[in-house]
Amino acid sequence: MRRPFDLRGFGAVLYKELIHIVHDPTTLVLALALPLLQLLIFGYAINTRVEHIGTAYLDEDHGQIAVRVLDALRASQDFNLVYAAGSREQLHELIVADKVKIAIDVPPNFSADVVAGRPAQLQVLIDGSDSSIADVALASASSIGAALSAQLDPRMSVTPQLIDVRPRTLFNPSLRSANFLVPGLIGVIMQIITIFLTALAIVGERERGTLDQLLVTPIGSTGLMLGKIVPYAAIGFVDFLGVFAAMLFVFKVPIAGSALLLLVLAIGFLLAALGLGLLVSSVARSQLQAMLMTMGIMLPSILLSGFFFERDAMPWIMQLLGYAIPLTYFLEILRGIILRGAGLAELWPSVAAMLSLGLFLVIVASVRFARTTS
Amino acid sequence: MTVTIETKALTKRYGDRTVVNGVDLRIESGSIFGFLGPNGSGKSTTIKMLCGLVSPTSGSASVDGHDVVRDGDGVRLAIGYMSQSFSLYGDLTVDQNLEFYGRAYALEPASRERRKREVAELTGVERFADQQAQTLSGGWKQRLALASALLHDPQVLFLDEPTAGIDPVARRDLWDLLFKLAGDGRTLFVTTHYMDEAERCTRVGYIYDGDLIAQGTLEELRALPGVNAPGSVRYFVRADRVMTAFARARSLPYVRDVTIFGRDLHLVVASDVDERRLQSDLAEAGVSIVERIEPSLEDVFVALTRARASVA
Predict the structure, then answer these.
(1) Which residue of A has its CA nearest to B151?
(2) Among residues A115, A301, A331, B296, which one has the fewest Cβ atoms lying within 10 Å of its Cβ?
(3) Domain B232-294 sits in CATH 3.30.70.100
(4) Which of A11, A208, A215 sits opposite B103 (nearest CB)?
(5) Chain B closest CA to A215's CA: distance in Å?
(6) Closest Cβ–Cβ partner in A23, A209, A216 for B81
């Protein structure tokens, strides 16, 4: 039987795969051009609508009116008050770390001012990364402020209102939806290309009947696996660079954080996506099966990862499922770095989760692969 | 003579289905072993177990001194394998296919070049070096597959239906090549459906429904008790109107079996019937030759298969 983690034959398989790729320029062009095309189409076309936005608050006032304001926010469909912060710094950190999208600050003397009939400011910090969330939060907070003002003092129903909602949009102040969607698309598109390419490359070998011929040679199972996936990982990375460039120069989404960190983590994500592709290839008996299984992974990835729908607004079981999807973490990383300028300090939970999930997938896939090849 | 391939009670089960059932084989080095049996009888599974592609459920097998379960690496370096379907890369050229297998066997660049040249010359594929493998004819594809299997100079070759679907001339040429390889001292294990190929093998084994029901030289197999039913002999009959002869022969009470071979019939008849009686009983069909014959390998296998099927 074959030894596990046997690297022999890696160079031979790599040599052969590169020739396959060169001999099939159509596929290569498709693999490189489709991601860009998809990015352009989706980037211009997609828009979404949200509720139950994760919200943190800081009550520096501790008065009666503050309680009424917070109750009104709780009662609305739009906000989900999940964190009570202890300080303004913490409030800000919660947004940068993407724990919440909205942070509401009730300043000291808020109740006293209102009772005395002086307009009191209610600070609303909005994570503008996702423009649709930001729009909803803005409109909703303003209307709650207006409604409360009217209740408290019917005479003063016009500006300046008694409760003066002061929204401040962080990160994406112009509220462009491209800024939010395009970074997510990068993750989605990379996953599509990588899973398909790996799954089909290995299953194709099985289908053509060439796998047995490989397995009577001393090529090790790890050598075979790596030799097959390295070229496709490289294509996946070139795709990443392409759509990344399109994001910067076509959609003009500025990158707030470290581009280098993003590149490194993109490689980590490729690892996880390749693991999924390998897993598919170790189960599928035909290319058709591989395609269907890949679709079966793609749809939940797109729907549950937070690409379309805010994960906080999903039922808990769907949120839980989302944690099993590498794309979920990569989306957080992409949006964190590009939109909020987050670094490893804020993103490490996602980074750790994505890398361990990727490593886990690759190990499970290699073990399965070694088993099917021995 | 040394034994190169040996199996003891080699068995493969998938669930409760026994595909190969307690097969014992002893194959001497430098010989060509012909492995026959109907489709689905366990031929390919046996080869795959011997090549280390499928692990046996029970029993043991060794190839060139390497145990197939414990020393898979030893087996892989000692053997060359040619599967029944074309299993090289059609989009790679002849030279690139050889280059890939040379690398897969981790041959050093210098010896890789030398071996590529040697096997390409031996099999004659060198003139197609820069042609994509998928453009070769069936016979040449098989020669390329053989060349790839020979790159690392293995002492044992497993060939799973190497001549399936190729034309008769290419078939003859490929067999000449196989004899040359056996002449060099290599051991060949070949499965085939062609009786004429099987008759050229040093020894033959016949597997039916997972059981190896006979093995030996052609003479040994012909002498098996089940092949010549007690009290019966075989006749060769040539007739002008073969279908008439066939119908007539079947109606004769002393004829036990009739098979058509083109213009000829093979009859199994009671041993007290002589040539003259057959000649006169089949006269209306225009019989020209009636001759006593030894059973052919096909007769042997038909007899063994029928005996087996009637037991089951």
Answers:
(1) A217
(2) A115
(3) yes
(4) A11
(5) 7
(6) A216
The answer to whether the CB atoms of B105 and A217 lie below 8 A apart is yes
CB B4 within 8 A of CB B156: yes
In angstroms, what separates the C-alpha of B104 from chain A's closest C-alpha? Answer: 5
**DSSP conformation class of A155:** G
Shortest CA distance from A206: residue in chain B: B87
* Cβ pairs bridging A and B (under 8 Å): 75
Residue B80 CA to residue B83 CA, distance in Å, equals: 10
How far is Cα B23 from Cα A318, in angstroms, rounded to an integer? Answer: 54
Domains of chain A: 10-47+177-372 (no CATH), 53-170 (3.40.1710.10)
- The pTM score is 0.73
Tokens of A253: 């989404």
Residue spans per domain, chain B: 3-222, 232-294
Question: In CATH, what number does B3-222 get?
Answer: 3.40.50.300
Set of chain A residues whose Cβ sits within 8 Å of the Cβ of B164: none
Condensed to tens digits (0 to 9), the pLDDT of residues B97-124 reads 999 999 999 999 999 999 999 999 999 9
Of B72, B87, B106, the CB nearest to A209: B87
ipTM: 0.78
Mean pLDDT, chain A, rounded, equals 82
Which amino acid, residue A186?
Answer: I
CB contact under 8 A, B104 and A374: no
pLDDT per residue, tens digit, chain B (312 aa), is 689 999 999 999 999 999 999 999 999 999 999 999 888 899 989 999 999 888 899 999 999 999 999 998 899 999 999 987 778 899 999 999 999 999 999 999 999 999 999 999 999 999 999 999 999 998 899 999 999 999 999 999 999 999 888 888 889 999 999 999 999 999 999 998 888 888 889 999 999 889 998 899 988 888 887 777 778 888 999 988 888 999 999 999 999 888 888 888 888 898 888 888 888 888 888 888 888 888 888 888 888 888 877 765
Name the 3-class secondary structure at B11.
Answer: strand
Grouping H, G, I as helix, E, B as strand and the rest as coil, residue A103 is strand
Residue numbers in A near B153 (CB within 8 A): none
pLDDT for res A130: 75
Cβ proximity of B288 and B240 under 8 Å = yes
Q: Which of A3, A9, A20 sits opposite B91 (nearest CB)?
A: A20
CB of B92 within 8 Å of a chain A CB? The answer is yes
Kindly report, residue by residue over A261-280, the tens digit of the pLDDT.
Answer: 999 999 889 888 888 888 88
Name residues 134-153 of chain B within 8 A of A (Cβ).
148
CB contact under 8 A, A20 and B73: no
